[in-house]
């Protein structure tokens, strides 16, 4: 068979269904790519070779028995390590959960498996998804496959890097403030944060419950659309009371022309402090490409978006503090030995189980929710949320899609942003969408479900190419960075 | 109004995160920077603006049937206990909750 990084998800599934190659062969090719490349990239926290081969064998047996195979038959998939999968640990890249064995399988993972996907393992992330560079993983960093001295973005950095390096075809990540879109941008792959509620959060370790959303990474738009269909096709999940029916065929409009589509641009954001000239040029280039194909550019205003950072860094830490209170060292997670009282056991288990950033976010949330402080920050933040949501509603009356950068800059070097609050500011462009619950595909060229599509993206093989033509790769990253 | 080290120590106690003296210094700096970052939220004129606590509007309660879930997706007790640091029989085991002083018992 061909190298798996040269095949789209649809081609893998079709090849397996037609018997051109077996699912086991594909799984072995993916394991091979992981063993060759992941020493350098370090996208994985766990490779589930046994599960992968068993699932692939089952797929091949089903084919041999004449059963109809799923749309992701034999497609190698990685899961962010905050998603439960029976037979794997779910660590959230934290010492707190270093030995946690999944007790059940998350709905999003199960739906990928139901569609025939082969589970290759669990991908690295920022600890409990707190971060934008995957540097806060308690276990190891993940290197950007295009340039291993640079971060892959985060928090779903391992998922993005595994796809960019051609180790897997598709990966799942989660996005609370940009954690799918930003690493997709920094790794030059396609990522999508679906509309809040479109994908079940059941079995995904919670960070900010009103903001979290699971979504796919792929090397092209069609693969992401295929994964979205797998994630949403079975309708709402009775195990997640916030999940919604999402009656959209994400493949249906992929080939539609962009002609006549109204593309919103936000001049105020293109002038935002911190947006690098190269990123700005990339966005302008994307807009030009869209207008060349007949789309119409429309200027829209999001007057309250400047407050999104402040609102987000109230809402998200408060929800995180509430969610992470469950890690008390009793039911699961690190338990400090030799404590005389429960209070002491909780305080020391949390002190020694959580990393720095996880402690910071919870401390901030604890403060903002405390008596007398709540009214000053939390309540107004929820009111600002209304204003931002209304801004988007008004903007979408004038346009079909809005073009925004996913990150103010291309991939930065390890340690380059060391101040935590400076790192928060890099979420400027992505977080307002979580606040409003909107969806967003990370590649400006294409938004599944909205009818936008550009030229077929080239297959990315950054690991090989990065070594040979690193400068070329970086230029490409800039170009596709939006 | 800046947060003092004492304030932050109080928050750490409430959040059940034991901090070393060095961590307390760093955390105090961080907390003040972070509060500065969110400060603009207080400068808004929000008179009459309804809060949005959740991005899905018009939600109504989702009620389950009051029946035992005997599908494969329920969590058996032995599995629920399997990741616990300490358990006995059907229970999670914890140290003393009210203290160990004899008079408290």
Write a brief structural summary.
The complex is a heterodimer of chains A (482) and B (105). Chain A has 482 residues and is α/β, with parallel strands linked by helices.
Describe it for me?
In chain A, α4 (107-114) links the parallel β2 (76-80) and β3. Chain A is built from 17 helices and ten strands. Chain A has a domain at 4-259 and 417-480: Alpha-Beta Complex (Amidase signature (AS) enzymes), CATH 3.90.1300.10. Chain A has helices at residues 9-18, 23-41, 49-64, 107-114, 157-164, 181-187, 221-232, 267-270, 277-292, 308-324, 342-353, 356-368, 374-398, 420-425, 431-436, 462-468, 470-480; strands at residues 44-47, 76-80, 118-123, 170-175, 190-193, 213-218, 262-265, 296-299, 401-403, 440-441. Chain A has 482 residues and is of the alpha/beta class. The model of chain A is unreliable at 444-482 (pLDDT under 50). Chain A has a seven-stranded mixed β-sheet. A three-stranded parallel β-sheet of chain A has the order 8-7-9, sandwiched between helices. The longest helix of chain A has 25 residues, at 374-398. The radius of gyration of chain A is 21 Å and the shape is globular. The two termini of chain A are 33 Å apart. Chain B has helices at residues 5-14, 21-38, 77-81, and strands spanning 87-88, 91-92. In chain B, strands 1-2 form a two-stranded antiparallel sheet. Chain B is flat and about 50 Å long. Chain B has a domain at 5-43. The two termini of chain B are 43 Å apart. By secondary structure, chain B is mostly helical. The mean pLDDT of chain B is 87. Chain B contains three helices and two strands, in the order αααββ. The interface between A and B is large, with 74 and 54 residues.
């Amino acid at each position: 068979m061909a190298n798996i990084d040269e095949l789209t998800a649809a081609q893998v599934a079709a090849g397996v269904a037609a018997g051109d190659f077996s699912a086991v062969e594909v799984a072995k090719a993916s394991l091979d790519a992981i063993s060759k490349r992941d020493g350098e990239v370090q996208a994985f926290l766990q490779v589930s070779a046994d599960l992968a081969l068993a699932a692939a064998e089952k797929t091949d047996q089903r084919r041999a028995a004449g059963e109809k195979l799923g749309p992701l038959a034999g497609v190698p998939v990685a899961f962010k390590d905050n998603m439960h999968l029976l037979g794997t640990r779910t660590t959230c890249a934290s010492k707190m959960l270093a030995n946690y064995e999944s007790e059940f399988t998350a709905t999003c993972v199960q739906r990928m498996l139901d569609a025939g996907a082969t589970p290759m393992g669990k991908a690295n992330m920022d600890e409990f998804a707190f971060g934008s560079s995957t540097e806060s993983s308690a276990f190891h960093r993940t290197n950007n496959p295009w340039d291993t001295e640079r971060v892959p973005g985060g928090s779903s950095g391992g998922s993005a890097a595994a796809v960019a390096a051609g180790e897997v075809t598709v990966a799942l990540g989660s996005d609370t403030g940009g954690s799918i879109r930003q690493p997709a941008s920094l790794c030059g792959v396609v990522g999508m944060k679906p509309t809040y509620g479109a994908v079940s959060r059941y079995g995904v370790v919670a960070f900010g419950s009103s903001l979290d959303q699971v979504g796919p990474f792929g090397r092209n738009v069609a693969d992401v659309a295929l994964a979205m269909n797998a994630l949403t096709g079975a309708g709402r999940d009775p195990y997640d009371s916030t999940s919604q029916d999402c009656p959209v065929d994400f493949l249906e409009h992929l080939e539609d022309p962009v002609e006549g589509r109204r593309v919103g641009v936000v001049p105020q954001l293109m002038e935002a402090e911190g947006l690098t000239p190269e990123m700005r040029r990339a966005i302008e280039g994307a807009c030009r490409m869209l207008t060349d194909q007949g789309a119409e550019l429309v200027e829209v205003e999001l007057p309250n978006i400047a407050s999104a950072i402040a609102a987000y860094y109230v809402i998200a830490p408060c929800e995180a503090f509430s969610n992470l209170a469950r890690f008390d060292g009793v039911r699961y997670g690190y338990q400090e030995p030799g404590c005389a009282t429960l209070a002491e056991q909780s305080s020391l288990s949390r002190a020694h189980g959580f990393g720095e950033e996880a402690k910071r976010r919870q401390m901030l949330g604890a403060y903002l929710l405390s008596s007398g402080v709540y009214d000053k920050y939390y309540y107004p933040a929820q009111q600002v949320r209304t204003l931002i949501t209304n801004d988007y509603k008004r903007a979408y009356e004038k346009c079909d899609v809005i073009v925004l950068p996913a990150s103010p800059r291309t991939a930065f070097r390890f340690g380059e942003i060391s101040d935590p609050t400076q790192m928060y500011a890099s979420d400027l462009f992505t977080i307002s969408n979580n606040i409003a619950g909107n969806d967003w595909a990370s590649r400006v060229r294409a938004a599944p479900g909205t009818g936008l599509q550009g030229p077929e993206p080239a297959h990315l093989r950054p690991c090989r190419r990065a070594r040979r033509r690193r400068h070329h790769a970086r230029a490409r990253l800039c170009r596709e960075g939006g | 109004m800046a947060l003092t080290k004492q304030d932050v120590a109080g928050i750490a106690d409430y959040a059940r995160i034991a901090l070393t003296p060095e961590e307390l210094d760093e955390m105090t700096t961080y907390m003040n920077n972070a509060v500065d970052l969110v400060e603009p939220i207080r400068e808004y004129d929000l008179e009459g603006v309804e809060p949005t606590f959740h991005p899905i509007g018009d939600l109504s309660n989702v009620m389950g049937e009051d029946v035992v879930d005997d599908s494969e997706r329920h969590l058996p007790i032995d599995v629920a206990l399997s990741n616990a640091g300490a358990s006995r029989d059907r229970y999670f085991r914890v140290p003393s909750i009210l203290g160990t002083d004899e008079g408290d018992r």
